[in-house]
Amino acid sequence: MAAGCRQRPVLDGADLAGLRELADAVDADLLMDGVRELSALHGSEAPLDCTGFDLAERLCHLTHLDARTLMRDRLEALGYQVSAFDTEDGPFSTSAVVAEKRGASLPDEVVLVGAHYDAFYEGADDNSSGVSGVLELARLFSSRTFDRTVRFVGFDLEELGLVGSIRYVAGLPREERIAAALVFDCIGYADPAPGSQISPPGFPPRDTGDFVAVIASDTSLPQALEVRALTDVLSLIPSITLVAPADGAAPLAGNLMHSDHAPFWLEGRPAVLMTDTAIFRNPHYHRDTDTPETLDPAFLRGVVQTAAASLAYWAGGPR
Amino acid sequence: MRRALPLALSALLFAPAAGAGEHQLSGYVRGGGQLHLSAARTMGGIGGGVGVRDVWQDRFLFQVDASYLVMLGNVLALRAGAGVQRRGLYSPAVLLVGSALLGDQLTFLLPERASPARGPALSIGLAMAPLRFAVPGAQVSVLELGVLVGLDSPDLALGFSVGLLEIAASF
Q1: What pLDDT does A54 receive?
Q2: What is the phi/psi pair of residue A179, to 5°?
């Protein structure tokens, strides 16, 4: 683990065989089952009251309650003690779902993985794929031991402007050490066809949507380099790493701030986002066509494999 | 009126040289932007800075300047240039420019590149100032366009610069 220790060689001391075994255990069928369940819940739940939000029609199709319940129930079924980080501020209350596996030797150092559980329409890619990824990691980590505490978080109301994660990060005790945070947002859509990937101005042009984007800031550059090194040494799915300057708040880097990792960056905590790039690839983004059958199970599994190896390495394990 | 405009333009184009000494030193302030683009990083921004220039024989330019750029973090842009200008009130110029950008950047690791680009972004290129005017003791340029090339090994980098306003005073 190299958070805050840039001089250390990348992947120093990694148990590559253990990380390989962990990554291999990621189950594509379970991931897709999770996506289908979550999408069905989003599709059947009564959406949030959108009175006063008349700028975009999709705001009248935002749901979150049933997905929150499913996330909590699944984590409890895996044996985790689940808590809620509830806030009341302004027109919307938020509730983060939080579960932890205490670290064996460094329990005060936390490695966090999270995804927002609110979604427009069925929200298969955005963000049932991310929530399903968190639950799959929780399943894999539940039977293994790590040096550091591993925390699984479901963020609320990301779609209304990162509301839940901003409140969650603001509520973290200053003395709590987040060694690394990993956020999933849209991790299931891939398209290898030429022309399927859009690159914003100032970013390297890519024509095919067949990679996972790993987005970091200067604060989390060590973690991004470790993800990349693990990708290479374990032959995981191709990744492109994008590192924003400083805390990411530069105007021309704004495209890299659009998910729940951003509040971590702004608080100076190391965080990495994994994404299929959402609107820059997925034509169903924020539409009623964002359904499970549009996702690529192998790609989704590949992203979660990369996350599993990275998270385990940061957590110091598996032991 | 129809005759006045061509006459005025002719006066600008064929005006006598301003500041005909061997060496004419001037200081200038400038505003604009610069971008350095490669597969490894994007660096630059918009901002402003100061520089000094020596005009030799009212023809040859030698200059260095430093600018502070924002929009993509905090970037220091250092440039050195040498070139020629047209003598007279209308004094367009062309310069060979070397540039170094230091500071924040957007960093990329592509599948074929595993380590980040580090250090200053160096490039060389040409800058043209087609709307530049000189009177004794002062010069003003309202547009400067530059194209640069650099190397973020092993990737080629392209650079672009735009000067929107430069005001110089001789001393």
Answers
A1: 63
A2: -70, -35
B129-139 residue pLDDT tens: 999 999 999 99
- CATH number, domain B4-11+23-170, options 2.40.160.20, 3.20.20.80, 1.10.10.10, 3.20.20.70: 2.40.160.20
CA distance A84 to A68: 10
Percentage helix, strand, coil for chain B under 3-state DSSP, each rounded to 5 = 5, 65, 30
pLDDT at A41: 98
Which residues, other chains included, contact A29 with Cβ-Cβ below 8 Å and sequence gap of 6+?
A: A297
Tell me which residues of chain A have a pLDDT lower than 70: 1-9, 53-55
Q: How far apart are CA A127 and CA B33, in angstroms?
A: 38
Q: Burial of A239 by CB count in 10 Å (0-12 exposed, 13-18 middle, 19+ buried)?
A: buried
Which of B76, B107, B113 to mutate: most A Cβ within 10 Å? B107
Please, which residues bridge with residue A151 across strands? A100, A112
Query: Which residue in chain A has the smallest CA separation from B113?
Result: A240
For B110, the closest chain A residue by CA position comes to A240
Listed by start position, the domains of chain B span: 4-11+23-170
What is the pLDDT, as a whole number, of residue B18? 44
**Distance between CA atoms of residues B10 and B16, nearest Å:** 12
Query: pLDDT band at B76, cuts 50/70/90?
Result: very high
Count the neighbouring beta carbons within 10 Å of the beta carbon of residue B46: 19
> ipTM of the assembly?
0.89
Amino acid, res. B62: F
B16 and chain A in contact, CB less than 8 A: no
Task: Tell me whether residues B106 and A202 touch, CB distance under 8 A.
Answer: yes
Q: Residue B135 has which token pair? A: 């009177």
Q: Do A239 and B73 lie within an 8 Å CB cutoff?
A: no
pLDDT at A13: 82
